[in-house]
Design brief:
Structural class: mainly alpha
CATH topology: A middle domain of Talin 1
Helix content: over 70%
Largest sheet: 2 strands, antiparallel
Number of domains: 1
Strand content: under 5%
Radius of gyration: 19 Å
Number of strands: 4
Distance between the termini: 22 Å
Shape: globular
Strand order of the largest sheet: 1-4
Length: 317
């Protein structure tokens, strides 16, 4: 039976990527119509859209009284963002530049937000109060981002005008909504198959969450990143990475804490994820503050951190 669940996971992941690309294309053209700045679009709208699988997994798991799964997914997804996604941006985009004080601060805040949930569980409980703290932190992040919007002057150029432009906008809105619906359905397939694989291979929900499900739910962000690089919107890569980290850590786990608070009796499944999150954060901050960019060599190093993380999780499963 394992091969059936593997097939479901592969097919669902493929559909997840395709629907993520639909959403990306539609949102980029919607941003053109609305003349919104690139970084703001990627940091909020696109990050929210590509984080819908994590949100969907988090809420449904919390309702099902399985909050350990979304906690693992968020930890894994944020490690993917800090390592794999940053590395891909640097390799495919020929060095990932992070210039300007606002970008520097945003990158630093995103790294700190990835650590915030791990700090809140040190008392052995992930409570409703912790969930409210995370949601409040999310509001503060985006209030600050909107306040600094004027510093991001690059907007999308658009060639279409008048009625033709408006019809394209309506079509893109429909494509955006359909893409999100398909994305959610495919994410359900990823979660279902991954949960079954956890049973077949005798893995805990935490381990399957930080590895298989986290990578699967991160595919829309990766698809967005590749698309943005091809279209020459490298600023959007940074915005999406930072926004996704903040939304995962604050919104997803904030909702989980409010819906289904839980006590942590065994910290061992969380320690590896916490340790690698801290390592990924430290090296990410070091790289962006040294030369204001992530080089190809540094990108390969970040890839190595992620591979070591997965091997360590599987070894201590």
């Amino acid at each position: 039976m394992a091969w059936i669940y593997i097939l479901i996971f592969i097919v669902s992941s493929f559909i997840l990527v395709r629907s993520g690309m639909w959403v990306v294309k539609a949102l980029i053209r919607i941003a053109q119509f609305l003349k919104v700045r690139e970084f703001i679009v990627a940091s909020f709208l696109m990050a929210l859209a590509t984080s819908l699988p994590e949100i969907f997994v988090g809420v449904t798991s919390a309702i099902s009284k399985k909050p350990e799964l979304p906690f693992g997914v968020v930890i894994g997804s944020n490690i993917v963002a800090l390592t794999v996604m940053v590395a891909l941006g640097a390799l495919l985009g020929k060095d990932l530049h992070i210039r300007g004080k606002v970008l520097q601060r945003s990158a630093l805040y995103a790294a700190l937000y990835s650590l915030l949930p791990l700090l809140l569980i040190l008392d052995g409980m992930f409570s409703k109060r912790d969930g409210m703290i995370l949601l409040a932190a999310l509001v503060l992040y985006f209030v600050r981002l909107i306040a600094e919007e004027e510093r991001f002057r690059k907007v999308f150029n658009n060639q279409m005008k008048g009625w033709k432009h408006f019809k394209r906008f309506v079509k893109d809105m429909l494509l955006f909504l359909v893409g999100i619906a398909v994305l959610l359905l495919s994410a359900q397939g990823v979660v279902f198959s991954a949960s079954k694989l956890a049973e077949v291979f005798n893995l805990s929900l935490m381990v399957i969450g930080v590895s298989l499900v986290a990578l699967g739910t991160s595919l829309p962000e990766i698809a967005f990143e590749i698309r943005a690089i091809r279209m020459g919107h490298k600023t959007m890569i940074l915005g999406n990475i930072m926004g996704s980290i903040v939304i995962n850590a604050a919104l997803v786990l904030g909702l989980v804490g409010i819906i289904s608070p839980f006590a942590i009796t065994d910290f061992s499944p969380y320690l590896i994820g916490a340790a690698f999150t801290l390592v990924a954060c430290l090296f990410f901050i070091k790289f962006i503050r040294s030369e204001r960019k992530v080089t190809e060599i540094e990108a390969l190093f970040l890839f190595g951190i992620y591979i070591l993380f997965i091997l360590t999780e599987l070894y201590f499963k």
